[in-house]
Automatic annotation (TrEMBL):
This is Lysophospholipid acyltransferase family protein. It is found in: Cell inner membrane. It comes from Sphingobacterium kitahiroshimense. InterPro entries: LipA_acyltrans. It comes from the Bacteria. It holds the Pfam family Lip_A_acyltrans. Keywords: Acyltransferase, Cell inner membrane, Cell membrane, Membrane, Transferase.
């Protein structure tokens, strides 16, 4: 890991394929859901609005401390990212299903043993958050996997790998399992960039 590493001091670069994907979504005026994990400098996703005219939003969990919540919200929204409270996101997105948008989910949270979808992940059975998949299938959106890797100390590159073009045509669990497989490959390339302290197995 690099010392004194801070997302505000780092630039975001979109790969050629990521730019092509975003441009295509912009022309189609369609909805898209992008999935990523707690891997690499994921806070840089707040800079995606700089690269597109499509409304871009991400889910967040409001902090109990109102002042800290204000500071966190202000920092993450400064580049134009819209933040949706996680507990209201489904209702908001369904209400706005006719509006073109890009919605980002950090989807490797532990959903509880009675929730989510069980997948084989890092050589053990792991329950993965499936809310993003359920929403994508309801809205029939494009779904892609976002990966981030450093080009150097100052620049990180974001890439988008397609999972499906029309989520409603996929079988239940397909999107979540594809996401888990893609995240696993990212971790295997460089395990040091995954947030191992984020509890997933209980």
């Amino acid at each position: 890991m690099w010392e004194n590493f801070h997302p505000r001091q780092v630039k975001l670069h979109l790969s050629e394929s990521a730019l092509e994907t975003i441009n295509r979504l912009q022309k189609q005026r369609s909805q898209a859901i992008l999935l990523l994990g707690h891997y690499g400098n994921w806070e840089l996703i707040t800079k995606i609005p700089q690269f597109t005219n499509i409304p871009t939003q991400a889910l967040y969990k409001p902090l109990k401390n109102r002042f800290l919540n204000y500071l966190s919200y202000k920092k993450r929204a400064k580049h134009g990212m819209r933040l949706l409270p996680a507990q209201h996101a489904l209702r908001i997105l369904l209400r706005e299903k006719q509006t073109p948008s890009i919605t980002l989910f950090i989807a490797d949270q532990f959903p509880g043993n009675d929730n989510g979808i069980a997948v084989e992940f890092l050589q053990q059975t792991t329950f993965m958050f499936s809310g993003a998949e359920k929403l994508a299938r309801q809205l029939n959106t494009y779904v892609g996997y976002v990966s981030l890797h450093p080009l150097n100390k100052q620049v990180w590159e974001l890439d988008i790998t397609p999972i499906c073009d029309h989520a409603a045509s996929t079988s239940e669990g397909f999107i979540t399992r594809q996401f888990a497989s893609m995240l696993e490959k990212s971790i295997q390339k460089d395990p040091s960039w995954w947030l191992w302290t984020h509890r997933r197995w209980k």
